[in-house]
Predict the structure of GAF domain-containing protein.
Amino acid sequence: MPGSATLRPEERKLVEGARERAVRLLRDGAPLREVLAQLTTAVETLGKNRTVASILLLDRDGLLRNGASPNLPADYLDAIDRLKPDPNLGTCAAAAATGEVVETPSFYADQRWAELRHLPMALGFVGAWSRPIKDPQGQVLGTFGTYFREERLPTPAEREAVEELAAAAAVAIRAHALG
């Protein structure tokens, strides 16, 4: 929401700039991955590069696929490719299954990560959170996940930024599906 009290002016400028670049790329016919990468990069910049963001998309079979994760290694993305939404698995799979924000301040303490925690921890991540990306009717299209290098919850500014950028991602995903 423009003019909110949560984002500082420079953070607001970052979020609005990412949204505008994404819209411009979408209008110019850029691949969806490139459009979505603008949004994930903004979250990483907001996190002062102590975070890594990822957008996963639900495919026609209802499985999670990489939409844009420019700073996650290919072997990590291969390992999580085709995850089935599950309220008891990780943050993105749980967010896709429940349609709700899922937060994991520590992979050690969350049983949803029992079978997957070795993957992000090998990359130096300690926790994560994920917001579902929804269309206007509330249907989950994918997830917007953020990994942290320390045990913590997202800040209010991160929550607001991801909420706004997830809405922009929903527009882009729908436009690509229709186009």
The CA atoms of residues 108 and 117 lie 8 Å apart. The chain has a mean pLDDT of 95.
